[in-house]
Amino acid sequence: MPKSLKDLLYKVSLLATSGSMDAEITNLTIDSRRVGPGSLFVAVRGTVADGHTFIDTAIEQGATAILCEELPANRADQVAYIQVQHSARALGLIAANFYEQPSQRLKLVGVTGTNGKTSVATLLFRLFRSLGYRCGLLSTVQNQIDDQVIPTTHTTPDVVTINELLIRMLETGCTHVFMEVSSHAVVQERIAGLTFAGGIFTNITHDHLDFHGTFDNYIKAKKGFFDLLPLTAFALTNVDDKRGLVMLQNTVARKESYSLQTLATFKGKVLADSLFGLNMQIDDREVWFKLIGRFNAYNLLAVYGAAVLLGEEAEDVLTQLSGLTPPPGRFEQVISETNVVGIVDYAHTPDALQNVLETIDGLRHGDEAGQRPRVITVVGCGGNRDAAKRPIMAEIACKLSDRVILTSDNPRNEDPMAILEQMQTGIPPVDFKKTLTIEDRRDAIRQAVLLARPHDIILVAGKGHETYQEINGVKYDFDDREVLREAFANAGNQ
Ligand SMILES: CC(=O)N[C@H]1[C@@H](OP(=O)(O)OP(=O)(O)OC[C@H]2O[C@@H](n3ccc(=O)[nH]c3=O)[C@H](O)[C@@H]2O)O[C@H](CO)[C@@H](O)[C@@H]1O[C@H](C)C(=O)N[C@@H](C)C(=O)N[C@H](CCC(=O)O)C(=O)O
Ligand SMILES: Nc1ncnc2c1ncn2[C@@H]1O[C@H](COP(=O)(O)OP(=O)(O)OP(=O)(O)O)[C@@H](O)[C@H]1O
Ligand SMILES: N[C@H](CCC[C@H](N)C(=O)O)C(=O)O
Ligand SMILES: [Mg+2]
What we know:
binds magnesium ion, single chain, Mur_ligase_cen, eleven-stranded mixed sheet, six-stranded mixed sheet, cell wall biogenesis/degradation, cell cycle, 3 domains, Protein-Tyrosine Phosphatase, Chain A, ligase, EC 6.3.2.13, 26 strands, binds ligand UAG, Udp-n-acetylmuramoylalanyl-d-glutamate--2,6- Diaminopimelate Ligase, Chain: A, domain 1, binds 2,6-diaminopimelic acid, alpha/beta, UDP-N-acetylmuramoyl-L-alanine:D-glutamate ligase
């Protein structure tokens, strides 16, 4: 969909321009490696590199126009230049203009929070499909255009990709799109220029301080999403979270809430919680759900509230919601022949790990002989991510498990043993005896299986749905669920 530069710059505040604003643009990119004739290259200052240093390369590759914060001293005659205050923010508006505002032509709902984004977005997507709508999904696990699955590398893609996907969703007849909004995405303006019909806040706990610096900045990043919601949108928050109300402080959107503890627009109560599911009372109706754990009661309530705010009948919503299963890698169970219960879960933050282990603790019962199943936890922390959570996660694992095996997650560009040593500093001395460190994740899972007795529970935390392990820039095939199944089979347990 070619457009003139002038059309693309609608609503963008310009500091200066040079060259023809009638030039025709056929492609929009922030990556010089993807530039060709007809491209508008947008120079964005990143965390590793500065896009401005690639302007010459972009021109060598045939760029038609350059948008930047600082105009280069030497300019090429045939190229149009646009100077703006903030390239990444301008890019959001330009991407929306390029694709003709797809977000305004469907109902786009964003979910933010430390934990629960994928769960809530995926449940909403599945719910609305079961209610008969064509839908889109942008999530950590995958993007989806109705039943077409598109692999993803980010929780929230860059703003050009988002608009590109939204237009494809529209063309496929989608009416609703559910997306995760990561804090990185808010800060890096990956959601700039999008018009949301609603925003949902799940919770906020420790994560990503490597990127945001302080917890306050992290809160501000999440809040930034609600600050940019329009008047027509709803802003649905979890008021049981300490920061739930702060999120809505400056939003102009309609303020709505959900809670398991206090007065709220959508009020729920957990009546029973077992390894088979949740029994809840929601707005005077009693319902069984297939999801496990109190944290999922919050996710279900958020989904229910959003669906009602989007105009659906409460009764229909609860009926469909009660049939839904958890998203992949979220409390996914793999059970051995001798009834060792393997649980693969994407808990990769202290809060998530604590929630999952507390859920497991609440669900384990003694066998006929009165012996309580033991909990064996296999966990690691990702490289090139928040290092402060490493000792905390090891400590939580020790506190709530009978045996702990510390292992690698995605080491990325870090030395796996160095990450493990940082985790080890969190092990309370009384727990040294119950803790092992096994760098190789497959060996760690195998060891957990060897330690397990019938009815014991093995939690493999941190990688959930991931089907790879990223080591030094290479993604090797690795799937906790498969490795666990193989280990059960090899140990003669299956
Ligand atoms: C730390 C971070 O968020 N990085 C994201 C960021 O990259 P960056 O700022 O480091 O970019 P950079 O490498 O410094 O490059 C700056 C600019 O130069 C351009 N460039 C670079 C090289 C070149 O040859 N030519 C060129 O034009 C780049 O395209 C970029 O526009 O902008 C890029 C483009 O949008 C993202 O792909 C990249 O995600 C990296 C891969 C990443 O790992 N991000 C993670 C931390 C992330 O975003 N995670 C959140 C989820 C977190 C959660 O809630 O759990 C997510 O939304 O996925
Ligand atoms: N509402 C919740 N509160 C606390 N913990 C949760 C909640 N929902 C899920 N979890 C835990 O957090 C893990 C990650 O859940 P989910 O993938 O839904 O979160 P996310 O916010 O999408 O994470 P990411 O930041 O990686 O995208 C789950 O496997 C579960 O252990
Ligand atoms: N969206 C999160 C995922 C973390 C998953 C964990 N397995 C890890 O690699 O640290 C991130 O990019 O930080
Ligand atoms: Mg996610």
